[in-house]
Amino acid sequence: MIAYLERFVHENDAESNQDDDVSTISNALELKSTIDAAAAVSASKDFGGIYSVEPLAFLKPSSTEDVARLIRAASSSPNLTVAARGNGHSINGQAMADRGIVLDMRSLATGSIHVGSAYADVSGGALWEEVLKRCLEFGLAPRSWTDYLSLTVGGTLSNGGVSGQAFRYGPQTSNVTELEVVNGKGETLICSESENPDLFFGSLGGLGQFGIITRARILLQPAPDMVRWIRLVYTEFEDFTRDAEFLVTRSENDSFDYVEGFVFSNNDNPLTGRPTVPLHPTQEFDPNLLPRCTGSVLYCLELALHYNNTDHPSTVDTVTNSISLYIPVHSCPEIVICTLTW
């Protein structure tokens, strides 16, 4: 098998039929998955667009054992390389394999989310939006998110996973109690703080260099019924950061449940400007409210307060206003308030 793999890696002449090679390597490794040679072009790019490296094949594993078999083969080969690809949102070519094999981790996501009372066991290839949808069926939600929910669990846990809840619960890597990881030798190991702790902490935020995360046990909490959503737009960076720091350092009962900031251009560019900041359908951003001295960049604080259907709107208003009164509003930021249901 290894001899064949070496021929597969080195052979790249006009007489070689890559489709036949792809089929043969799958049989040689006794994989139950499929190898999609046609999709190799799409696996040669990622969200960053910095590099373009075409692999020999794009593997769609059907199980963790398929992943382990391929890694074991690669560990015995001096030339075969393997990379795990979630939803393709890496920015520096981390999910590419130059003339190697890319693993499509999304193929492991089907039926892979099992929700308990305090945690959920999920596939590393599941999207966070899939995890949220499933957990909400039980009135639960993960404690810590990432901004963009169309990312895989294994992908964000390999990086960190930061969003507006991180100031309270830490990044997503701090809200995992157990992992299933295929290490560089092709061994499938369960790891946690007490079992294989070096692998556990190395895999969390390890950019995939210590193994491939195939399953994770993530912490859950009760999901709110409603969310009060607030956005404050600032013209001055100092005011923006001062208010953000003030909010994330307050106690849980005296702050919002979600605090996050971002930057956007002060223009009408649909990709980088004011249109990129979604508002309630009945509201729109009025640039005439901005001071004349406003620069080319604006800053936005996005805040959210969780509450339940049993809470009277006046109570929510009182809580929101009591917290907001402590925020020293500078430069007349435009304040947009709307209520959204989960």
Automatic annotation (TrEMBL):
UniProt keyword list: FAD, Flavoprotein, Oxidoreductase
Uppermost EC category: oxidoreductase
Cofactors: FAD
Entries under InterPro entries matching the protein: Cytok_DH_C_sf, Cytokinin_DH_FAD/cytokin-bd, FAD-bd_PCMH, FAD-bd_PCMH-like_sf, FAD-bd_PCMH_sub1, FAD-bd_PCMH_sub2, FAD-linked_Oxase-like_C, FAD-linked_Oxidoreductases_BP
Entry EC number(s): 1.5.99.12
Coiled-coil spans in chain: none
GO-annotated molecular function: cytokinin dehydrogenase activity; FAD binding
Ranges for domain FAD-binding PCMH-type: 51-223
Swiss-Prot/TrEMBL catalytic activity: N(6)-dimethylallyladenine + A + H2O = 3-methyl-2-butenal + adenine + AH2
GO terms under biological process: cytokinin metabolic process
Family per record: Belongs to the oxygen-dependent FAD-linked oxidoreductase family.
Protein's name in the database: cytokinin dehydrogenase
Lineage, highest ranks first: Eukaryota, Viridiplantae, Streptophyta, Embryophyta, Tracheophyta
